[in-house]
Amino acid sequence: MKKQKLLRKLLSGSKNIRFSEVKSCAEAFGFHLERIEGSHHIYKHPNVLELVNLQNVKRKAKPYQIRQLLHIIEQYNLKMEE
Questions:
Q1: Which of 24, 57, 65, 68 is the one with CA 20 to 30 A from 45?
Q2: Which CATH architecture has domain 3-75?
Q3: How confident is the model over 25-65, as pLDDT tens digits?
C-alpha cells in the first residue's frame, strides 16, 4: 500500500488496522525497531524523546497505540520519508 494511502487509513480512525500497516507507517516516518519484548515492539526515532510501543494482537494493531503514534508524529512535526 502506498505510504500516503496508508497514512489516510490510519487517520480515519478505523479499528481494523493490521499490525504490519502500523509498523510500515512508523518506519516511513523514521522510526526504527529498538527491541522486542514479548508482544511489544518498541520503536525509537532519533529526534523524538518518547518511545513508541506497538503490539501485534492477532495480526491487528491496538487503536490507542495508533493514536499515540499519530500524536507523536503531529507533536514533533515529523515528515514521511520518500
A1: 57
A2: 2-Layer Sandwich (3.30)
A3: 999 999 999 999 999 999 999 999 999 999 999 999 999 99
